[in-house]
Amino acid sequence: SIRVFADICAMQSIDLNEKFAVISDRWNPRIVASLNGQDVKLAKIEGDFVWHAHDEEDEMFFVVKGRLELHFRDKVEVLLPGQMIVVPKGVEHKPLATEETWIMLFEPQSTDHTGGVETPLRREKSQRI
Ligand code: NI
C-alpha cells in the first residue's frame, strides 16, 4: 500500500554529504525528507538573500558547513557548523553567507522561502533529491 511504501522510504538512512554533493547552485533548497507536514531541506548558500518574513511558519536553520549570518532588524546572529536557530513566524530576517555555506532547513511544506518576495532567487517549488 502507499502507507507501507512511504514508511519504507522514510526508513532509509540519508547521507547529508551525498545529498549536498548533488547540489551545485545556491539559494535553491532541496527536499530530502518530509514528516508531519514539514520538510527537511538542504541548501548551499553564498552571498546575500532578500529581507523577508513568513507570516504563518516558524523556520529552523541548522548550519552543516561554513558560516551563516542571520540578520534581524535589531541584531545579527552568527551560526557556525553544529549551531541552529528558529526564526518565529512573522519576524523579518535576511540570511547572508560570506563563504559557501551548507544549511539544513526544517519548515512546514507551505513555506515559501522568500516569504512571497519576488526576486530572481525565488523558487516556486522545491525539488526532491
Ligand atoms: Ni525565511
Protein architecture, described:
The model has no long low-confidence stretch (mean pLDDT 90). Strand 1 (30-35) and strand 2 form a beta hairpin. The chain starts with a helix and ends with a strand. With 129 residues, it is mainly β. Strands 1, 2, 3, 4, 5, 6, 7 and 8 form an 8-stranded mixed sheet that branches. Helix content is 12%, strand content 41%. The protein is built from 2 helices and 8 strands. Bound molecules: nickel (II) ion. Nickel (II) ion binds next to loops.
How much helix, percentage-wise, in residues?
Answer: 10-25%
Averaged pLDDT: 90
Number of strands: 8
Structural class: mainly beta
Identify every distinct bound molecule in the structure, by name, code or SMILES: nickel (II) ion
Give the DSSP E fraction (strand runs of 2 or more residues): 35-45%
N-to-C order of helices and strands: HHEEEEEEEE
Distance between the termini: 23 Å
**What global shape is seen?**
globular
Q: Major beta sheet, specifics?
A: 8 strands, mixed
Residue stretches low in confidence (pLDDT < 50, at least 5 long) are none
Number of separate helices:
2
Write out key terms for the chains shown.
129 residues, mainly beta, 8-stranded mixed sheet, 2 helices, 8 strands, globular, binds nickel (II) ion
